[in-house]
Design brief:
The protein has helices spanning about 1-10, 15-25, 65-70, 115-125, 145-155, 180-195, 210-220, 265-280, 295-300, 310-315, 320-335, and strands at about 40-45, 45-50, 55, 75-80, 95-100, 105, 135, 165, 200-205, 230, 255-260, 285, 305-310. With about 350 residues, the chain is α/β, with parallel strands linked by helices.
Length: about 350
C-alpha cells in the first residue's frame, strides 16, 4: 500500500528513479509475499512451478535482486534483457508514465551492465529447486553481426537458466525486429539450435505482420528445439491510448514501446491467433496488460501456460503479485476447475 501510494503521488520523479528505489528495496528483501496455492501449481519444462505468474524481462536486467523478486510471490523470474557488452541505452528521458491508463511508454534500448556483470551477480544467488529462472538475451546496438551476439549469449547463460528467451522484438533497438522476418528468423533458429541445450523461447512483437507471425509458427512447429513463444513485447501503436484526454498529451508522441493495460487487447489477439495455429503443441508465455486475476485468467484461457507482468508493479506495488494469484486461484475454483492446467486454451469466459 505504501509503495502504491508513493508511486501514485510521485509523478514529479523520473520513472527510472522510482524503479531504482524499488530495486534498492528488493535488495534488502523487504517484501515476503510467498504463498502456495495448490490449484496454481503446474509442471512444465520438466519443472514444477509453484504458480504460472512470472516477472517479465526488463525489470531485473542485471540479475541484482533475484531473492527479493522471488519474495514477491512469483512462480518464476525472467532476468535481462542482457547483452554481450555493457550499454547505456538511449538518452534520457526515455520512460514516461501514462497514469490515466496505468501505462508506460519506454525506449530504454537494452540498457544493462553486460554479460560479465550479469554472470557475477547470478553466480552469487543460491538457487533452490523451486527457484525457476529464465534469462532473456539480446544483441548490442552497435553489433555488426546479431547472430554471433545471440550465439555467444546463449552459450554464456544457458548453464544458469531453466530456459533462455531470445528477444527479437524490442522496438527500441534499430533493426532488431527485422529478425522476425522469414529468412533472418530461419537463419537465427538454425544457428541457435546448433547450441541448444536448455528450453528456448522466442519473444515476439505485438506489431508483427500476419505473414511473419504465420511463418514463425510454421518454423517452430517443425523445430523440436524451440519450446515456444513469449507473447508479446511492447507496442509502437498509440491507438490504444487515444480514447480519452491525457493530462500530458505530449507523452503520446514519444517514441518507444507502450506497455500496461492498453496493450492487453493487442497481446490477447496475438495469443489467440498463435494458439489456434499451434494447437497446444508449443508452450506460450503471455505478457502484456496483466494487472488483475481476471487478466491472468483470460490470458491462460486463451492458451498461455505461463504469464508475466511488469508495468502493474509500477502502479500497484509489490502486493499486486499476491493479489493476482489469490484472485486467479478463486476464479479457477468458481469455474469448477481443479487446477490451472485445465484452464489453458479452454476459452472459458468470465
Amino acid at each position: 500500500m505504501l509503495f502504491r501510494t508513493f508511486s501514485k503521488y510521485a509523478d514529479f520523479l523520473p520513472p527510472e528513479m522510482l524503479h531504482s528505489f524499488f530495486i534498492f528495496a528488493l535488495k534488502f528483501e523487504l517484501f515476503n509475499k510467498k504463498k502456495i496455492f495448490e490449484n496454481l501449481q503446474i509442471n512444465l519444462l520438466g519443472k514444477k512451478f509453484d504458480n504460472p505468474l512470472g516477472l517479465a524481462a526488463g525489470f531485473d536486467k542485471n540479475a541484482e535482486v533475484i531473492d527479493g523478486a522471488f519474495g514477491l510471490g512469483f512462480g518464476f523470474l525472467e532476468l535481462g534483457t542482457v547483452t554481450p557488452m555493457p550499454q547505456e541505452g538511449n538518452p534520457k528521458p526515455r520512460v514516461f508514465k501514462i497514469p490515466e491508463y496505468e501505462a508506460v511508454i519506454q525506449r530504454l534500448g537494452f540498457n544493462n551492465r553486460g554479460i560479465e556483470n550479469f554472470l557475477d551477480n547470478i553466480k552469487k544467488f543460491k538457487k533452490k529447486s523451486t527457484d525457476l529462472i529464465g534469462i532473456n538475451i539480446g544483441k548490442n546496438k552497435s553489433s555488426k553481426d546479431p547472430f554471433k551476439d545471440y550465439q555467444f549469449m546463449y552459450e554464456q547463460v544457458q548453464t544458469f537458466a531453466d530456459y533462455v528467451a531470445i528477444n527479437i522484438s524490442s522496438p527500441n533497438t534499430p533493426g532488431l525486429r527485422d529478425l522476425q522476418k522469414k529468412d533472418k528468423f530461419k537463419l537465427l533458429i538454425k544457428k541457435i539450435t546448433k547450441l541448444k541445450k536448455k528450453p528456448t523461447f522466442i519473444k515476439i512483437s505485438p506489431d508483427i505482420s500476419a505473414y511473419d507471425l504465420k511463418n514463425i509458427c510454421d518454423v517452430i512447429l517443425n523445430e523440436d528445439s524451440i519450446e515456444g513463444l513469449i507473447l508479446t513485447n511492447t507496442t509502437i501503436s498509440r491507438e490504444p491510448i487515444q480514447s480519452m484526454p491525457l493530462r500530458n498529451s505530449w507523452k503520446v508522441v514519444e517514441q518507444g514501446g507502450l506497455s500496461g493495460p492498453p496493450l492487453k487487447k493487442k497481446s490477447n489477439e496475438i495469443i489467440k491467433s498463435v494458439y489456434n495455429k499451434i494447437k497446444g503443441k508449443k508452450i506460450l508465455i503471455g505478457v502484456g496488460g496483466i494487472s488483475s486475476g481476471r487478466d491472468a485468467f483470460e490470458k491462460i484461457s486463451l492458451g498461455c501456460s505461463l504469464i508475466q507482468l511488469y508495468t502493474s508493479l509500477i502502479y500497484k506495488g509489490p502486493n499486486v503479485v499476491s493479489d493476482i494469484l489469490s484472485d486467479l486461484s478463486d476464479l479457477i475454483k468458481k469455474k469448477g476447475l481443479k487446477n490451472v492446467k485445465e484452464l489453458i486454451g479452454s476459452n472459458i469466459e468470465l
